Give the backbone structure.
Amino acid sequence: MRIITKDRNIILEDVRDFNVSQTLECGQCFHFDKIAEDEYGVVNGRNLLHIKQEKDCITCFDIDESTFVKNWVRYFDLERDYGSIKEHLISADNRLKEAIDVNYGVRILNQEFIETLMSFIISQNKQIPHIKKIVKDISEKYGEYLGSIDDKKFYSFPDKTALEHISEDDYRECKTGFRAAYLKSAADRISSDENFTEEILSKMSYEDAKNELIKIKGVGEKVANCVLLFSLGFRNAFPVDVWIKRIMEFMYFQKETPNNEIMSFAKEKFGEYGGYAQQYLFYYARENGLGK
């Protein structure tokens, strides 16, 4: 990948194993808006990026190189060699090749911890458009204005300080339903426990970090594993939702199988690459309706 500065924009050339649309639309994040085909506004913490892809050329508008490197290279996981990851997964199971080839450009994002936790609490029994709408509404009401792209306004998700002033009823007004109590529980933990931070959790073992997360009311194995994978850097995490359950049963079990058995199987088969396998399988299953 080469980074070129041109007309106040950043151009990424010769980008391999990265497709902006596939990465954003694969269900791992919810704080973005589609501007046009393969063109998006993306929020990462208090940072807004206008990004557009044309084949293997990606343009990031109105941003300098130092800001892009500081705020977005890690977010998009651009320094990781996904070619070798794909080779490892295909050698572990050649049946993954089709899913990987179709979804060649999916990368696992490194998202801000608080927003990731709150977003996946919201995600329970919700479709992606509704999750995005709730995240957007909470951000507009309690976050900070970041800017506009075309006619779309973007706001940050509320930070730790802002969360302290949001009540359970406030969350309920944002159409979170029964999840309002869970969001309030998570916000209270974030505000009151100085050890419940991205920095500390990411240095724990996988099991210890997961156990801390599931102490929060309404956070189970699936939500915890999503937070571990998409925010805390645990690439071995293997979240099991309805799509993963369907495709894993379809490919490996040929029968209804408990989630814990699926996770144990994935741990043994994919090991430290479990999270990558999960993303290729999830997107492939959802886009093709497999295992229904």
Summary: The first strand starts at residue 2 and ends at 6. The two ends are 39 Å apart (CA to CA).
